[in-house]
Design a protein that fits this description.
Elements (H helix, E strand, L loop, with lengths): L10 E8 L8 E12 L9 E4 L3 E3 L8 E9 L9 E9 L13 E8 L14
Amino acid sequence: MLHSYKEGSDLKIHVHIVTNGTEGVDTQVNYEVEYTIGDIDEVMSAATVITSGNSTIASGTTDRTHKRIEVGTITGTNLKTMATLKIRFRRIARVGGTADPAADPFVTMIGIHIEEDTVGSRTEDAK
């Protein structure tokens, strides 16, 4: 975690994608994040999975259009500044819905929004 992280606040995960072609129909994608968390001198938590659910790419969306998709929220209860977050990210099958894109969208980055309450920590080991 960043040293500016407000301890105990939630983490909001999203993915940035770029479309790979122009579709003639609405298409959908679905992503998941599997994560574990552990603070210094703690055992990492059991794996937890959150999914974005189907996200629509509208028919006629121009090739190479940048989109942002919300994946989900990690509850920050008892989460400390020195914690480590390990994630595995992957595209998974959509649930019902419309068609898959003809070509896989490019994933450009995974983002995590955090709440901050200081510029950093006051010491190397403590908030």
